[in-house]
Amino acid sequence: MKFLSNPYNAKSDKAIFETIVQLTIVLVALQFLLSLININITFGYFILPIIYVMIKYDRTEVNIFNKLQLHFVGTLGVLLLAFSEMTMLYEIVNLLFLAGYLFAICKNINSVHAKNLSYKAFNFISFFSFYAVAGTVICFFYFLMDLFDKSYGVTSSFLFGGIDFFAILFSTLTLIVSRSEETVENEIKEVTNKIIDAPVLNVVVTDALEKEMSGQVESIIQYFENSEEYLDTNFSLDHLAKEVEMSKHHLSEVINHDMNTSFYQLLAKYRINHAKFLIEKKQNLTIEAIVDECGFSSKSTFNKYFKYFVGQTPSGYRSLVA
After folding, report:
1. Which long-range contacts (CB under 8 A, 24 or more apart) does 65-72 make?
2. What is the rounded distance in angstroms from the CA atom of residue 257 to the CA atom of residue 64?
3. What is the pLDDT of residues 228-279, one digit of tens each?
4. Most confident of 52-56, 72-76, 199-203, 213-217
5. Is the Cα dihedral 26, 28, 29, 34 positive or negative?
6. d(CA 227, CA 221)
7. pLDDT of residue 149
8. Which of 13, 76, 200, 300, by CA, is between 20 and 30 Å from 159?
9. What would the 3-class secondary structure string for the chain be?
10. CA torsion through residues 53, 55, 58, 59, sign
């Protein structure tokens, strides 16, 4: 499958996430089983570039698998170095690899793409970030032991085996929960269809469901059209949930499933509409000033969304309407 969800689609994103979880289970399970026979190949390292790419790039614009290829080549290089006789060099490269990805993940964890992830994906990333931290601490500890020619009663394989076991368990439960949600959704649809098939209740059920869904979507649209609070840089899903009187989780479901978009894309769409208005009506404003007026945290983010929704750069649009 293509690791790309363009335009944003909750079902496609879910399929991408479940594929990543399945890959993680295979990698860590293989690593765990090999450790039982004293073969230490850290296949779990491939999880770090996966997490980094998930939070770094907008999956509506890039193919995640293509972005992973170069990272996987580097990771494979680190794994192959473990079979060389240059033990000290391997341990140094190993530490730099873990620390480098952890730094990159921490740096991008608050990006718009990371915030756009589902709660399951975010929990998955949080757990495996901890997994990587634990691995880094263990590697650093045994690096110091080797450096000062000391020994420790417990082998690193035993410690890694312990965290690998919990990683497999967590990933398996995550996959079960994700798939059970789909099963529940299908059962609800099946029951709803059966009810709708009943001639007496047909109009009542469909009207009630349609009114509820359309009412919730309408309240979200009305908020964005009648308020300018969304132009605040710190505007969040929590703020919108409070304004439209929905829980954060339910609001996210309505936006993802009923409106077939994400909160951050919806927010960007209205901000870009406001930017178009400013470009058309206030020719004296610079692009930088418009970026600030519309609540974008950076000019690069503004340019990316402007081109995504309008089809051209802000400067090109200004020339067109001037």
Report:
1. 65/2, 65/3, 66/3, 68/3, 72/46
2. 22
3. 899 998 898 889 999 988 888 888 888 888 888 888 889 999 999 999 989 8
4. 72-76
5. positive
6. 10
7. 75
8. 76
9. CCCCCCCCCHHHHHHHHHHHHHHHHHHHHHHHHHHHCCCCCCHHHHHHHHHHHHHHCCCCCCCHHHHHHHHHHHHHHHHHHCCCCCHHHHHHHHHHHHHHHHHHHHHHCCCHHHHCCCHHHHHHHHHHHHHHHHHHHHHHHHHHHHHCCCCCCCCHHHHHHHHHHHHHHHHHHHHHHHHHHHHHHHHHHHHHHHHHHCCCCHHHHHHHHHHHHHHHHHHHHHHHHHCCHHHCCCCCHHHHHHHCCCCHHHHHHHHHHHCCCCHHHHHHHHHHHHHHHHHHHCCCCCHHHHHHHCCCCCHHHHHHHHHHHHCCCHHHHHHHHC
10. positive
Rounded CA gap, 306 and 95, in Å?
Answer: 40
CB 42 within 8 A of CB 79: yes
Residue 114 identity: A
- Tell me which residue of 13, 242, 225 sits closest to 119, measured CA to CA: 13
Give residue for tokens 């990371």: 114
Measured CA angle at 42 (ends 151, 36), to 5 deg: 70
Give the global pTM: 0.50
Q: How far apart are CA 54 and CA 253, in angstroms?
A: 20
222-270-267-221 Cα dihedral, nearest 10 degrees: 20
